[in-house]
Design goal:
Helix content is 3%, strand content 40%. It is mainly beta. The strands form two sheets. It has a 17-stranded mixed sheet that branches. It starts with 8 loop residues before the first strand and ends in a 5-residue tail after the last helix.
C-alpha cells in the first residue's frame, strides 16, 4: 500500500518482504517514492516493477530474484518510466535478468550495485538490459539515457553488463569479475556508449558490437587484466532504418561527453573501491 500510494512517501524496508505472496507478480512502484533498507538484512524477494512512473529512489536493499522458483521474470524492471535511481543494491538470481530498462524509459542511474548469480546451470544469467529489442523498436530512439557507475558485475553473470540498444549509456568505473562469461558490455541497434575507467578482470569480450546495425562506442582509460575476446570501439554497422514514421540517422552520434558533472576514478583503483563500496551500506 505504501509504495503504490498516490502521495510521495519514504518507505523503509525491515526484514524480508516477499512480493510473490498473493499473486506471484512483481510489485508495482508508484511515482515519487524513496524505498530504502533499514539494515543489512533488509530484503525484497521476488521483483519490483516501474510502469509509467517517475521520481523514484531505491537504495540500500538486497533484491533477490526467484530463480529457480516461479515468479517475476526480473528482479527489477523499468518500463516507460524516467528519473529513477538505483543505488547500493545487492541484486541476484533474477529468472530472466536482474535489472531491465526498456520501453522508452530514460534518465535512469544505476550506482554502486552488485550483480551476481548462484547457479551455473541457470540458463538466463543475462543481468542488465537497456532497450526493448534488437532491431524492431525504433520508438526507443531518443530515450534510454542510462548511467552505470561503480557497479560490481560478479560471479556467474554471463552477459548484458549492460546490453544497450537505441539508447545512450555512460558506463564508468565498474568492476567486472564474472569469470566464464560470454561477454560484458554489448552495444547495438543505434546505441551509443561511453565506456571509461572500468576494470575488467578474467573475463571474455569486455565490450563488443552486437548485430549488423549502426552503433557507436567511445572507449577510454579502461584496465584489462587477463581478458580475452572483443574490445570493440568506434562505429560499426551497415543497416539503418528508414521505415515510416521512423527515419534514424545512418550513423548515430558518438557519446563522448555527458550533460552532468562527475569525477571518474582511475581504473587501477576500481577493484578496491568497488569491492568495498558496492551493495548495501550501513
Amino acid at each position: 500500500a505504501a509504495v503504490q500510494a498516490s502521495a510521495a512517501k519514504i518507505v523503509v524496508v525491515s526484514g524480508t518482504i516477499r512480493t510473490t505472496d498473493g499473486d506471484g507478480y512483481a510489485l508495482q512502484i508508484a511515482s515519487n517514492k524513496t524505498i530504502i533498507g533499514l539494515n543489512k538484512n533488509s530484503t525484497i524477494y521476488g521483483g519490483i516493477t516501474f510502469k509509467n512512473v517517475s521520481n523514484v529512489i531505491v537504495r540500500n536493499l538486497n533484491m533477490q530474484g526467484v530463480y529457480p522458483n516461479s515468479g517475476p521474470d526480473d528482479a527489477i524492471s523499468v518500463h516507460n518510466s524516467n528519473h529513477i535511481w538505483f543505488d547500493h543494491l545487492n541484486i541476484w538470481n533474477g529468472t530472466d535478468g536482474n535489472l531491465d530498462i526498456t520501453n522508452q524509459s530514460s534518465y535512469v542511474t544505476v550506482s554502486w550495485c552488485k550483480f551476481w548469480y548462484t547457479d551455473a546451470n541457470h540458463p538466463h544469467r543475462l543481468n542488465a538490459l537497456i532497450g526493448s529489442g534488437a532491431a524492431d523498436h525504433p520508438e526507443d530512439w531518443g530515450y534510454l539515457k542510462v548511467t552505470y557507475h561503480h557497479c560490481w558485475f560478479a560471479e556467474l553473470v554471463s552477459e548484458r553488463m549492460p546490453r544497450v540498444m537505441y539508447g545512450q549509456a555512460h558506463i564508468y568505473n565498474n568492476y567486472y569479475t564474472s569469470k566464464g562469461n560470454l561477454y560484458c558490455i554489448g552495444v547495438g541497434s543505434y546505441a551509443a556508449a561511453l565506456i571509461e575507467g572500468n576494470y575488467f578482470k578474467d573475463v571474455k569480450s569486455p565490450h563488443l558490437f552486437m548485430y549488423n546495425i549502426y552503433a557507436n562506442m567511445t572507449v577510454r582509460n579502461n584496465k584489462y587484466d587477463n581478458t580475452t575476446g572483443n574490445k570493440d570501439s568506434g562505429a560499426l554497422g551497415e543497416r539503418y532504418i528508414t521505415t515510416a514514421p521512423y527515419t534514424l540517422l545512418e550513423k548515430p552520434e558518438a557519446l563522448e561527453t555527458v550533460p552532468y558533472k562527475y569525477t571518474a576514478d582511475a581504473a587501477a583503483d576500481v577493484p578496491a573501491i568497488v569491492s568495498k563500496g558496492a551493495g548495501p551500506q550501513f
